[in-house]
């Protein structure tokens, strides 16, 4: 990944550059008028425009020259390093980026927790004090007389400015993504985000990676640029690998041997869902789903294959007759409740994967049918036979249309059957480059 940073002073260029080196990028700081060449695929160039105290027009000229240099270098991402106390020609310089990077939106986060910079309600605080009550108010060249960031920007640019407040950021990346999309849809290209902690910055960065309708440009003192770059690198790495979700609801000894063989060959541990918790219409059903999904969420970045199964030797054999009396429903409904739980788990894992899981393997016809129902799929477009009674198809309709799936009966095959099926699925995904767009 090639990252370009435009900074209005040398200290800022170096500060952000050092953070990018920690991500594994070979980073160089140079000056905006200098020519540069680097051929490393994972690298960063930080350009110092030395424009903080120039006239707005002169500052824009230097930033424009920097944009041309970085686009000529074929940067994958261009970032704007701004002062953590909001000094300089921030508005005019951001205008240049918006006017010369097609379809762009700038996300402004001056927050720098380790330096005491936070943003709440659009107000920038320095060690808890409003910005205009700090020493920057007495800056001899560029005094700051306001702490409300939209007010500062509105004096510098005619672009509309929006604020995504702390309650939205604290609600998670999906909430921030929704707010960003709302801004984009109404044509607002400068978006300030509240943030107090590093976690808030990470949330904003994740939200930015989920935006596909606009080119996201971070404008910050370094933390957001670093977090956003990191997220993009992870996403790129995940997309280069064909991650697969394996869901097994069969409790037969054959299925257990197949799961054990798969886990051993791929050096991974399955995530176990308790069937006694899923065989219920009470709160244990949702609680177990949330627990399993949370456990898998921690594995997605580090494993190419995620296994979820109800098959574990320590789990008790369920007495459906007794359970049906307790629950007041038929034995058949309780059995389907388990497969519905596995289906819901699969659905949420796919949603959390943000498109990095490109294929699923299901063991058991009931598990597959429940998944189709959960994601509102119409059925499958059959592609090929992996082995006798093991089919490869593509989901038709619903939230995950186009998702590759291999299905197998619980009693089918020897101990290598699931491993061979998953290997086949991965090879097929790699060859055809199928991408899941529904998550």
UniProtKB/TrEMBL annotation:
Keyword terms of this UniProt record: ATP-binding, Carbohydrate metabolism, Kinase, Nucleotide-binding, Transferase
Domain Four-carbon acid sugar kinase nucleotide binding: 245-417
Species of the source: Ornithinibacillus halophilus
Listed GO MF terms: ATP binding; kinase activity
Gene3D superfamilies cross-referenced by the UniProt entry: Four-carbon acid sugar kinase, nucleotide binding domain (3.40.980.20), Putative sugar-binding, N-terminal domain (3.40.50.10840)
Domain (Four-carbon acid sugar kinase N-terminal) ranges: 4-227
Family, similarity comment: Belongs to the four-carbon acid sugar kinase family.
Pfam families named among the record's database cross-references: NBD_C, SBD_N
The protein's name: Uncharacterized conserved protein YgbK, DUF1537 family
